[in-house]
Amino acid sequence: MAFVELQNVTYKYPLTKTPALQNINLQINEGEFVAVIGPNGAGKSTLCYALAGFVPHFFKGEISGTIEVAGKESGKSTLDEWVLNVGLAFQNPFNQISGAKYTVFEEIAFGLENIGVPREEMKSRVEDAMALTGIRDLADRSPYSLSGGQQQRVALTSILVMQPKLLVLDEPTSQMDPIGTREVFGTIRKMAEDGMTVVLVEHKMEWIAQFADRVVALKDGSVLLEGKPSEVLTSDLLAENGFGISRYTSTAREAKKRGLWKKENLPVTLDEAVAGFKL
Amino acid sequence: MHERLSFHMKRNSVIHRLNPLTKLVLILALILISFTSPWYWTPHFVLLLAIIPLSALGGVFPEFFKTATRLILPAASFLFLMQAFFQPIGEDVIFKFYFLDITQESLMFAFRNAMRVFVMVSAFTLFLLTTHPSELMSDLTRRGLPPQFAYVIISTLQILPQMQAKAQTIIAAQRSRGLDTESTFFKRAGSVVPLVGPLVFGSLVEVEERAIAIEARGFTSKHSKTSLHEIPDPSFDKVIRWVLLALVILSIAANLWLA
C-alpha cells in the first residue's frame, strides 16, 4: 500500500454541476516529490484541498472514492486530526498570515501552540524551521510588513515547523524572485530526501524538471498524464491541451520539425537545451 | 501603511511588568470605585492620586497626557456643560441663559459625572498604553477564555489597518479610472458604492482562505494549547487583585449602606 493513495475520487463542490475532480487514482510513495501541473480550472487546488482534508471536511459537497494518507482514511477522520499528518500551504501568502501574532517568530509558533507543543521544544523547532527556509533575520518583524515573497516563506515555514508527513504546496513560490524560488525548491527537495512526502502544484516547468520525481498532469479534473518529468513535460499532449510548457521544449519541438534537433528527447531546462543544440 | 492598531508603548516599567489580568482588575476597580463610592470627591482623587501617578510610574505620562487633553477632556467638558444646563435639580440658580439654568446642585452633579467618565476613559487609556494586546489575550486564554474569542479580538486589531490600506488602494484604482471623490456631497456619496463591493466581497473571500490557513495549523485541535511566551503571575499580583476586589466591595457596600 502506497503512502498516499487516492482511489476513484470524484468530488463536486456544493452548488456546482460539474465535478472538480473526476475519478482520480493516484499512488504516492513515502519521500516522493510529486509535481502537479494543469491549466486553470483543472482541479489542481481542489486536489490539494482533498489531500489536506479540506475537501470534503471544510468545503462539504459530494465526494466518492477513498483518500488515504499514512494508512488513515480521510472520510473516517476529522479535520483537526488530519492536519497533524498533512500540511498545506497555498498561493496567497497574505491570507495565510494568522493575524493573531505580532512577529514572524510568534506567527510560526502559532501552529505549535495550537497543538500543544511544550515551550522549549517550540522555540527550538521554530528556530530550526526558520534556519531551513532562510528567514532567521525576519524573526522580529511584523508578518504584515513583509514583501509577498517573504510572506510566502513565512507561510511555508509555518507549515514545515509542524513537521507533517505529507506536505501539500499550492504554488508556494508564485511571488518569489528566481533566486528565492531556487532556494525554496532546494529546501523542499531536501525535505523529500529526508523522508517527507511532497505534493507541489507549480507552473514553472524548468523547476519541476530539476526537482520533482514525478509529474501528474491534470485536465478537467482528471489525470491526463503521469510519469517522469522528462517524459511528461515534453509530451505533445501537453501543448495540445493548453498546458503551459517550457520555452526550451517548444523551441526544440519547432527545431525538431526543421531537423535542427537531433536528440530523441525534447529538453525542459536550459542546460538540456544547450546540450541538445550542441550536437 | 503597516501601522498596527494598538496604543501599546514598549517600556520596561513596573506597570508593564504587572500581569495583564492584574492591570485589568486594577482599572476596573478604579472605575467601579469612582462610580459607586458615596463620597463626592472619589473620582477626582482616583484621577489625581491613582491614574496620573500610575501613568508616570509606567513611563507613559507624555502619551497619556496627550490622549487625556486632546481626546478625553473635550468629551468630558461637553458632558459637563450638557449636564450642568439640563439637569433640572436644585433651587439656587447661579447662572441663567434664556430658559437654561445652572444651579449649584446641577453644577456639582455635572462635575462629578464628567469626572467619572474622565476616570473611566483615562483608566482604559492607561491600560492600553501599558498592556500588549497579545499578552493580555494569551494570559486570558490560559485562564479559560475561549481561544476563538481571543483570536477575533487580536486579528481584528491587526487586520483593520490592512483593510484600511486596501480601501486606499481601491480608491486610488477607481480614481485613476475617473471616479469622482472630490466634488459635491452626493457625488462623493455615490462613489462609495464601487468601493464597498471590492472591499466587502474581497474580504469575504479572504475570510475563507484565512479559515483554511489557521485550520491547517491546528487551530481547532483538541490538544490543550501551549503558549510561546510565559506570562508571569507572581503572588504579589494575586495579592493586589484581592485587595482591589476588597476595595470595590467596600465601596459598593458603603454606597448601599448610606443610600
Question: Can you walk me through this structure?
Answer:
The complex is a heterodimer of chains A (279) and B (259). Chain A folds into three domains: 1-85 and 164-236, P-loop containing nucleotide triphosphate hydrolases (Rossmann fold, 3-Layer(aba) Sandwich); 93-163, no CATH class; 246-279, no CATH class. Helix content of chain A is 39%, strand content 21%. Chain A is built from twelve helices and ten strands. Chain A has helices at 44-51, 54-57, 79-85, 104-114, 119-133, 148-160, 178-193, 205-211, 229-232, 236-240, 247-257, 270-278, and strands at 4-12, 21-28, 33-37, 62-69, 72-73, 86-89, 166-170, 197-201, 214-219, 222-227. In chain A, helix 7 links the parallel strand 7 and strand 8. Chain A starts with a strand and ends with a helix. The mean pLDDT of chain A is 93. Chain B folds into two domains: 14-131 and 233-258, no CATH class; 139-216, no CATH class. Chain B has a two-stranded antiparallel sheet. The longest helix of chain B is centred in the middle third of the chain and has 30 residues, at 147-176. The N and C termini of chain B lie far apart (53 Å). The mean pLDDT of chain B is 89. At the A-B interface, helix 3, strand 6, helix 4, helix 5 and helix 6 of A face helix 7 and helix 9 of B.
